Amino acid sequence: MRESALELEKVSKAYRTGGLRVEALRDVNLRVLRGEMTCIMGPSGSGKTTLLKVSSGLLRPDSGTVILLGLELYSMGLEERINARRRLTSFMFQEDLLIDTLSIRENVELPLILEGYPRRMRAEAVDRALEEVGLGGLGDRRPMEVSGGERRRVSLARCLVKSPMVIFADEPTSNLDTETAEAMFNLLKDINKNGATVIFTTHDPRIARLAGNVITMRDGKIQGEFKWNTIGVEP
Amino acid sequence: MAFRILRTRALLGFCLALLASLTMADLAFALLYGISKGLGSSLGGFEGGVVILQGGAKSVHTSRVPLSIAESLRRIPGVEAQAVTLSPTTLYGRPLTVRGVMDMGEYAGGMVEGEAPKGSGPWILLGEEASRSLGLRVGSIIALGSPSTPRTVLLRVSGIYRLGDMRDYEAAVPLGVGAELSGLPWGMASAIRVEGMAREELEKLVKTQYSLTIAHETMRGYITILDPLNVQVATLSAEKPGPKTIQLPFGYYTIIYRDSYISANLTSLMLMGDTSINLSQPGNLQRLRVEAGEDQRPILRGGDGKLIPGVWTEGSWLFEAPIGLYTLEVGGREHLIPLMGETTFNPKAIGGELGRAEIRVQWQDGSEVKDYLISIWRPDGTLVASSRSPGTHTFIELPPGEYEAEVSKPPYLARARFKIPGDGVNIVLPAVSNPGRITPSLYQQLRALSPIEASSATITSLLGVTTTSLTAVTALLTILSAISVITIHRGLMRSAEDNIEVLRALGAGRRQLLRMVWAKILGLDLAFGLASANLASLIQRQLLPVSILGYGIQPSPFQTTIYSMILATASWLISTRHRGEEWEG
Predict the structure, then answer these.
(1) Residues pairing with B360 in the sheet
(2) DSSP conformational letter for B368
């Protein structure tokens, strides 16, 4: 039996906005196996992004346990958790979070700098990552000088440059046309095939169909978990 | 890369704003330092005691205080008094405060180069800081412009001193030179520092007029009262016996008697309260010195005809007798001598080759002066002759030479030089009686202040603000400039906040952020702190001496640098504090 990449047990998280308490996650239990490609699907405000951030160690839950690759994230110290997150995972943000004052190459290089890689290794890894996402010739451009789809690819290249064991991707295909969205998904699929566990969110059923494992959410709760192939639905 | 994470444009603006704000902060700090350290406590180098100033004066620089007060106070046991003049002059277009000093002893002890000559003269001592900023060495000749008069005074730098206070930023000259630079009338100083007497006691002493009652028997001449500077402050006719009372301010006075061929020092006294003296009271033997030749053998007889023996000593005849009226026979003539104190009789003009001169005395309006005493002095200050004259014209026979005639018609006094042989001299008695005497109203204006109050009064009069408000304003400026440095830091961090958040989202911990970004910003801060400290020091040297009344009091470059570094580091610490929003690490 395969080991768990991620386990959530009775995880809850609430926000307070404008004096109102919003329960983003309610007693969520979840298990993702290593090497799986899991899609979290649900409408806006269902708690998808919060689930990803809590799962990746970015956001401390109010209660519950999060175990990532065997490490109980929130029982660790802050610096220890940051180190674990940086070494084991990558997070592809919905907003890309690229630094406009740096070139595309330098943006992709950042995770390696944080890891303390030597300069030569960094250069090779960045070139490889940019090639993988199809941006081989655009390394010296600034993020503002490329299209929205290309920015997403830069963001993805930054995720995979350090070959993480788990990739969290928040709405990787939002605001992309169908063709570009499918291309982006295929890139994630390739990364998954190479051994990385990929957990991504979307509210697009067409993209969700392409993932093997789908978890649906509504109002901070997991409604169901199924595999498209087991119910005979083809993409 | 770290700097580009902070955005290139924002970084350029940050650097410029940081340099400007740190420089402003350094300047505000320097101003606050200058006021609190320099002016607040030691304007004029008065570190302790009490300062006597003219109450109505606009500042220490324009105050006028009678020098005779200092000379009198110095004669009181346990009291130290030092008169000074303070002149804000210019040298090579730069302001320099020049201090006229009565006693150079303290300066002589602090010499680092050259020496402090004794006595008055055209020399100047420079404070170490002043010599450094002006680039002057011992032996330099400088031309000082006086702010009060169109005159320029040429002085030689004879030494450089270090006293460790505000005076290191000044220059020191003999009191007379200082008075000339300040445009002060003769006998005046800017201020007097007094130690050894309580402030209230001192103020009461110098502001009060005391009565001096002098009793005497019949004499033919005048009783003259001199202050410690030998200025005649009062003259009384001694013709009618009985007590005479005059009002005088506090002081050490010498009472002399003048008559034909006689000048007698009767007594000296310290007037610190209402005082009576009796000049006719019998007492110890008094000395009469007769400036006659050994072969002339003067004969002195008492009122009863008794012969008083005399001895030839030190080039003159000396007699000793009790107070009284005597007859002196010398050169075939008889003179009536009232002996009431140390008396000198000089009949030398009587013998030898004589020349004749006419001395014409009149009032300022040209009218005739009747019945006055005329005294003839040699340039070395010895009395040659004294005579009572009934009319405007006096003919006097004296050996050839230069003389000074002094006409005394109480309360008026006038002097003029003349030569024998010559055409004589016209002496005009002024409309104002006794012009050398300081008016009692000036004594009434005098104030005894603490050094800080004296500083405060000067700042208030020159800048129109009180020291407290000036200190408050500069303190506020210092605080505002410090806040501006912090605000600029915060601005930079805000502009780069999203980029820094990206790093945090990518897993940058505190140590990594410190290494990648904050350490470089701290390096920038410290570099600009150093640059701003130097820039501020440069600006201070140009502007601050003007802004704080000619004194270049400022923190040392080391102090400014430390202040800059502390400010930059504090701003850095405050602005790099993470506010912990969406995610923890």
Answers:
(1) B393, B426
(2) B
The C-alpha of B489 sits at a distance from chain A's nearest C-alpha, in angstroms, of: 19
Where are the CATH 2.60.40.10 domain residues in chain B? 209-278
Is the pLDDT higher at B584 or at A119? A119
State whether ipTM is beyond 0.85.
no
Residues of A in contact with B508 (CB under 8 A): 82, 86, 114
- CA-closest candidate to residue A61, choices A38, A30, A39, A19: A30
User: Parallel, antiparallel, or unpaired: how do β-strands B342-345 and B262-271 relate?
Assistant: antiparallel
- Give me the residue from A59, A93, A114 closest to B512, CB to CB: A114
A102 and B1 within 8 Å at the Cβ level: the answer is yes
Domain B209-278 top-level CATH class: mainly beta
Residue-wise pLDDT for B406-431, tens only, equals: 887 765 777 888 888 787 788 777 65
Q: Which residue of A has its CA nearest to B507?
A: A86
> What is the mean pLDDT of the segment spanning B449-478?
74
Q: Measured between CA atoms, how close is A94 to chain B, in angstroms? A: 12
Domains, chain A: 4-231 (3.40.50.300)
Interchain pair B509, A113: CB under 8 A = no
- B526 by DSSP, 3-state: which? helix
A68 phi and psi angles, rounded to 5 deg = -115, 120
Q: Do A83 and B501 touch (CB under 8 A)?
A: no
The helix/strand/coil state of B374 is strand
Contact between B7 and A101 using a beta-carbon 8 Å cutoff: yes
Nearest by CB to B505, which of A97, A102, A106?
A97
pTM listed for this prediction: 0.56
In chain B, the N- to C-terminal Cα span, in Å, equals: 21
At residue B281 the predicted structure's pLDDT band, cuts being 50, 70 and 90, is: low
Read off the pLDDT band of B262 (50, 70, 90). low
Yes or no: say if A7 and A70 are a contact pair by the CB < 8 Å rule: no
pLDDT tens digits, B340-367: 667 777 766 445 566 777 888 887 777 7
Angle between helices B8-33 and B557-575 (to 10 degrees): 130
Binning chain A into helix, strand and coil, the percentages to the nearest 5 are: 40, 30, 35
